[in-house]
Amino acid sequence: MWMEGKVAGLGGGRTGRWPDWEVAGWDHIPGAQQHHSHIPEGHRHPTIGNGKSTINVLSVGGGAGEMDLQILSKIRARYPEATINNEVIEPSADQISKYKERVAQASNLENIKFTWHKETAYEYESRVNAEKKTKKWDFIHMIQMLYYVRDIPATIRYFHSLLESQAKLLIILVSGKSGWETLWKKYGSSFPLEDLCSYVSSADLPRMLDSAGLKYQLYELPSRMDITSCFIEGDKDGELLLDFLTETLEFAKTAPPELKHQLMEDLRKPGCSENKDGKVFFNNNLGVIVIDP
């Protein structure tokens, strides 16, 4: 069956794999890691740990550390005298290894201490509760990882409970106004989905946060991805991109013809993409949620 072709999801690998299709996908997003410039100034550099000699940062689902190091560089620039204690929760040994390599090669990480925990968010919570040593944090971020937790509202509530009085919780995930939302609503039931992966976007967060009584700000980060090669029959890069968009291995070769035809038609439409200068740009907007203590 073609639905047996499911591969690791959007965040790269709670299973520890970064297959070619995923790399191809992110390679088509110009400045994929440069989104923070679109966040309003007041929250681009939130006031955290003011006056503290040590700032404690918790990265939940830190992956290979690309975004983490950018975030840390911003915090260090804002608080150059402070020591930063950065702890990472990441279940993939492969991702942690890549993260450590990235840290070893970086040259601007003075006064930053790194600690890695090979575990899921749920395992972290269970361990901390068992140890009865609840640690508070000045900044917690959860980037592209909420797709992989069993209970999203409970996960948010738990990590929010770990915030210091002047701290912030930052969540980034696909926007409810993105092409992903359109694809998931129409085709989610047709895509083979891992047990521990859910289709959630920024459109789902306000309801969860409001019911928990949390104060937050929601921002839209513009992003687009050139998927023109998807429409070139036999194009290797295009086939990898289709795998990325559908999270399905060899989708172009294994999907039922009618499903493939419908999806290719919808990928061209305004709900998913913009057609400009003979190219097709997929709407890859992200939603950013900044939650107050």
UniProtKB/TrEMBL annotation:
Any matching Pfam family: Methyltransf_23
GO biological process terms on file: methylation
Cited InterPro entries: HHMT-like, SAM-dependent_MTases_sf
One GO MF term attached to the UniProt entry: N-methyltransferase activity
Keyword annotations: Methyltransferase, S-adenosyl-L-methionine, Transferase
Superkingdom assignment: Eukaryota
Residues of the signal peptide: none
Assembly, per entry: Monomer.
Protein name: Uncharacterized protein
